[in-house]
Amino acid sequence: MAEKPSEFNSFKKWTPQDGTHENKISILLFVIGWGLVFICILLSLFVVMNNINFMPLLLAAGAGIIAGVVLIAIAEIIKLLTSINDQLKKKR
Predict the structure, then answer these.
(1) Which of 18, 63, 75, 78 has CB 3.0 to 4.6 Å from 30, enough for a Cys bridge?
(2) Buried (b) or exposed (e) across 21-38, using 16+ Cβ within 10 A?
(3) pLDDT truncated to tens, each residue of the chain (92 aa)?
(4) Alpha-carbon dihedral sign for residues 36, 39, 42, 43
(5) What is the pTM of this model?
(6) CA–CA separation, 72 and 28 (whole Å)
(7) How far apart are the first and last CA of the chain?
(8) Longest dimension (CA), the chain
(9) DSSP per residue over the chain, as a string?
(10) Angle between helices 21-49 and 55-91 (to 10 degrees)
(11) How far, rounded to the nearest angstrom, does the alpha carbon of residue 82 sit from its chain's CA centroid?
(12) What burial class does residue 89 get, using C-beta atoms within 10 Å of its C-beta: 0-12 exposed, 13-18 middle, 19+ buried?
């Protein structure tokens, strides 16, 4: 006989109204991460388009993009772990 498919859903949408601290922290990190990525992309475009010969500014923009991606990844990991925890609590 075929087994039932798992009811596990780690990709549910979160809203700030979900209430737990993990959700709020994850949403905050996600928003800050994307904001940092977009600001640093704009900064790097500004440096390249205006031929500003200031390499540390371009390096700072690159580091900011990497930091933003790391923040987004941390937010997604928190969301995934919290979803797994919720699913395990439901099974008990």
Answers:
(1) 75
(2) ebbeebbebbeebeebbe
(3) 444 545 555 555 555 555 566 777 888 888 999 999 999 998 888 888 887 777 888 888 889 999 999 999 998 888 888 888 888 888 87
(4) negative
(5) 0.69
(6) 10
(7) 25
(8) 68
(9) -PPPPP---------GGG--HHHHHHHHHHHHHHHHHHHHHHHHHHHHHTT---HHHHHHHHHHHHHHHHHHHHHHHHHHHHHHHHHHHHH-
(10) 160
(11) 14
(12) exposed
Q: Under 8 Å CB-to-CB from 70, ≥6 apart: which residues?
A: 33
Q: Which two tokens stand for residue 90?
A: 């439901």
CA distance 66 to 25: 20
Q: Are 41 and 67 in contact (CB under 8 A)?
A: no
Number of neighbouring beta carbons within 10 Å of residue 48: 11
How many whole angstroms separate alpha carbon 72 and alpha carbon 29?
6
Matching residue, tokens 């109204």: 17
